[in-house]
């Protein structure tokens, strides 16, 4: 596969977006498992089982390029734990996809599904390829062949992929078609995140940002903070950041800063979030008409009530954790705070609401999509919003209970909720044979 300096720089940036610098996704997932297990009376044999994925499928994916040559890419699907239901998790097309990264991220998905009490276990997969170097036709051929290579281990009752980095609703539509053609029946429930015309759910795209806003509102309520007059800074104005910022704005919060990769638009009197183009509407245009532009580093250390890092992983580190002025940090991105920074924020009494709860609206609406596909009946957008709100509130209450009972951080409380559900299911089912 060809590579150039641009592609490798992009790969490094994307990798930084998802994986902590100091440790791999797998190390982080195992560390969090041990940490949560310490607070609970769990059979160590169950913890040992959870350290290992049930299966990792590694496949070669050959495709014919548009010029007639053939390239072969490596693909993976890691399935971590299915004690509570079929595996669920994204598929990414990215040059840095590895077996270990898929395993670590599949474990995160297990915790995320369990904290939301969804009847799923965790999975993750992908193909080590730069999708920007493929034509649309090549991407379609890659997706169809990859689907065929995974066909034996995916399915609505086995493992249900979804879009992730480098894949999108069209990718899921091709997967659904490839699977359905080989199975001899239209099977929309094999993937989620499809376009609504082929069984996708209304409200799926904005769901992670919506859940970030809902959880921010619940956290503000918990700390007796009225959203009216609460100041918020949001890093990243993409799917997660823009949806969260606009909803909080609509609910009365004062959004004082939003940013993209070029910098942050800052207005202490409040930004009209609808007038700022999101990444999807117009990429990297946040600061174009701004009177006051500050850097992303400055945004993170603004003296605001709530900070929502919703762009990249590892933006709050040991270098800036002591300078964070917000009272509450809600993780919109995956892994925006390193483990060291997390410890510093804890000693400074800054509350951090973790990603596995805050941005879990995506997998929750994926669950709604799966239900709609199985029942062959689409829900209205209003119903999706209502049920998402109910599920987010339910998850919040469960985490709040453990937060108060164990006197731990919100992150630890979320992991305790997840692990106790998974461990109880293992205990109840037992070990076969
Ligand atoms: P996106 O591509 O829609 O938007 C990303 C935004 O971040 C853009 O505004 C971009 O300009 C900005 N950005 C990029 N690099 C930056 C930098 N160095 N400094 C500041 N801003 C920068 O992405 P998204 O889908 O909103 O995802 C954002 C984060 O949320 C990622 O960590 C992603 O993994 C996580 N997440 C996304 C979803 C989802 O379904 N979209 C679900 C859960 C978690």
UniProtKB/TrEMBL annotation:
Keywords: Oxidoreductase. The active site is at residue 124. GO terms for biological process: L-glutamate catabolic process. Residues 201-430 form the Glutamate/phenylalanine/leucine/valine/L-tryptophan dehydrogenase C-terminal domain. The keyword Magnesium does not apply. GO terms for molecular function: glutamate dehydrogenase (NAD+) activity. Coiled coil: none annotated. Residues 1-31 are annotated as: Disordered. The record marks 164 as: Important for catalysis. PANTHER family: GLUTAMATE DEHYDROGENASE, GLUTAMATE DEHYDROGENASE 1, MITOCHONDRIAL. Homohexamer. Belongs to the Glu/Leu/Phe/Val dehydrogenases family. This is Glutamate dehydrogenase. It comes from Haloferax elongans ATCC BAA-1513.
């Amino acid at each position: 596969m060809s590579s150039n300096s641009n592609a490798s720089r992009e790969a490094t940036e994307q990798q930084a977006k998802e994986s902590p610098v100091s440790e791999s996704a797998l190390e982080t997932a195992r560390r969090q498992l041990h940490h949560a297990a310490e607070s609970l009376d769990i059979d160590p044999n169950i913890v040992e089982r959870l350290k290992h994925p049930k299966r990792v499928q590694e496949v070669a994916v050959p495709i014919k390029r548009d010029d007639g040559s053939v390239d072969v890419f490596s693909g993976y699907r890691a399935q971590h734990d299915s004690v509570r239901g079929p595996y669920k998790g994204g598929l990414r097309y990215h040059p840095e996809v590895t077996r270990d990264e898929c395993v670590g991220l599949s474990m995160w998905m297990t915790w995320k599904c369990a904290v939301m009490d969804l009847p799923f276990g965790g999975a993750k997969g992908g193909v080590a390829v730069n999708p920007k170097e493929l034509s649309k036709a090549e991407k379609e051929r890659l997706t169809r062949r990859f689907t065929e290579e995974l066909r034996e281990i995916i399915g609505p009752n086995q493992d249900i992929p979804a879009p992730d980095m480098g894949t999108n609703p069209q990718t899921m539509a091709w997967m659904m078609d490839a699977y359905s053609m080989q199975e001899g029946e239209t099977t929309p429930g094999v993937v989620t995140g499809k376009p609504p015309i082929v069984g996708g759910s209304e409200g799926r795209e904005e769901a992670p940002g919506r859940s970030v806003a809902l959880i921010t509102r619940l956290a503000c309520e918990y700390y007796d903070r009225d959203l009216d007059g609460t100041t918020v800074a949001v890093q990243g104005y993409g799917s997660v950041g823009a949806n969260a910022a606009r909803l909080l704005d609509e609910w009365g919060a004062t959004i004082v800063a939003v940013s993209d990769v070029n910098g942050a638009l800052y207005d202490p009197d409040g930004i009209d979030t609808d007038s700022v183009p999101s990444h999807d509407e117009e990429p990297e245009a946040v600061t174009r008409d701004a009177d006051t532009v500050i850097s992303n580093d400055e945004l993170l250390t603004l003296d605001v009530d709530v900070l929502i890092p919703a762009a990249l992983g590892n933006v709050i580190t040991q270098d800036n954790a002591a300078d964070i002025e917000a009272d509450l940090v809600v993780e919109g991105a995956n892994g925006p705070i390193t483990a060291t920074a997390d410890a510093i924020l804890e000693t400074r009494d800054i509350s951090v609401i973790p990603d596995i709860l805050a941005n879990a609206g995506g997998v929750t609406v994926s669950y709604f999509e799966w239900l709609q596909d199985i029942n062959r009946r689409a829900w209205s957008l209003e119903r999706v919003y209502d049920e998402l709100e109910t599920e987010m509130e339910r998850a919040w209450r469960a985490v709040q209970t453990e937060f108060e009972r164990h006197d731990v951080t919100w992150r630890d409380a979320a992991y305790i909720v997840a692990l106790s559900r998974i461990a109880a299911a293992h205990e109840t089912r037992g070990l076969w044979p």
